[in-house]
Design goal:
alpha/beta, Rossmann fold, seven-stranded mixed sheet, about 35% helix
Length: about 230
């Protein structure tokens, strides 16, 4: 009886220590904070999205997909490694020089300081993209340009969507299905929302199985699948 009482007291304490471990160490948040840049627990570059959004995207096969990104960074490396093609646009010259030092063969980063040129650059490519990411300046302007540049079955990603509800509303009302991935992410001590807007003809396949085991999850397979 005494053992049961002791265990009842110990279990909540264990949980209090285990939960932060998953976030701080397993997700790599501490390593991100120390480096000052978004990385996972192994030091691999990841987007500055919420962890739930990163885990969802990490299980999909983008090998035949084209990506356009408003705002480059570690996310650019993440996408370039996974996608067929990536085009990013920036408006900050110092940041552009820094990010351009390490690009892959399927990657292009364009510098455009003018607001109109920046937000409308996607149209000048005369291409349609499977994924469009809006994660920098002029988000409403970029959203308006993005809607006509997305392939059928594609997705639009809006980071910090809780800060830009009008932009989220605009995209959603273009007949997209909005799914909000709220939670912690790299570096930051606060939670936020990364929203993914799926077209009605969503056409993305998983790399392996979906869902994959999540960070901090218990890896087991239920014998009864009924």
């Amino acid at each position: 009886m005494k053992i049961n009482l002791i265990l009842e007291k110990i279990n909540p304490i264990r949980m209090l220590f285990k939960n932060p471990k998953t976030l701080i160490f397993d997700c790599g948040q501490l390593k991100s904070a120390i480096k000052g840049t978004p990385v996972d627990c192994d030091g691999n570059k990841i987007p500055w999205y919420t962890y739930p959004a990163i885990e969802f995207l990490g299980q999909l096969d983008f090998s035949d997909k084209s990506v356009f990104e408003y705002g480059s960074g570690n996310s650019s490396f993440f996408w370039a490694k996974r996608a067929k093609e990536l085009i990013s646009v920036d408006d900050d010259e110092k940041w552009h020089k820094l990010v351009s030092k390490e690009i892959l063969l399927n990657q292009k980063i364009v510098l455009l300081k003018n607001r109109e040129e920046y937000s409308n650059f996607i149209k000048s490519t005369n291409k349609k993209f499977d994924i469009i990411i809006i994660d920098a300046k002029y988000r409403m302007d970029c959203a308006k340009s993005a809607k006509d540049s997305l392939n059928s079955g594609g997705m639009i990603i809006l980071d910090n969507s809780d800060w830009y509800p009008d932009v989220a509303k605009y995209i959603r009302e273009q007949n997209f299905i909005q799914v909000d991935f709220a939670g912690f992410g790299p570096i930051n001590s606060y939670t936020w929302v990364t929203s993914i807007f799926f077209s009605r003809e969503y056409n993305f396949k998983p790399i392996n199985k979906q869902p994959q085991y999540c960070i901090g999850g218990i890896k087991q397979y239920a014998k009864n699948q009924d």
